[in-house]
Amino acid sequence: MPDRRHDDKSLPNLATDLWDLVRAYAKQETIEPVKGLGRFVAFGVAGSVLLGVGAVLLVLALLRALQTETATFFDGNWSFAPYLLTLVVCAGVIGAAVSALRRKGTKP
Known about the structure:
This protein has 2 helices and no strands. It has helices at about 10-70, 80-105. The relative contact order is 0.05.
């Protein structure tokens, strides 16, 4: 007959060990990945803000260039034209971005 060891754990000790194991597993599989995900979200938000600021500055640069370089042509009754041209360029860029997103989303 095989020897039974006398170091068998009691039921409350087994329950405590099981609880500790479940808690450690839950932390490993839920909390730690979320902490790592926070870094990617932070970089994404920062990149989006910087891209937005850059786009606004480019639009303002286009508007300013149209106003200063074509001052004699867009003078008087045509003073609205630089604003309209800038608006058309912005709409074209937004339309191209939306088209690219839709096209990318349909590929398997």
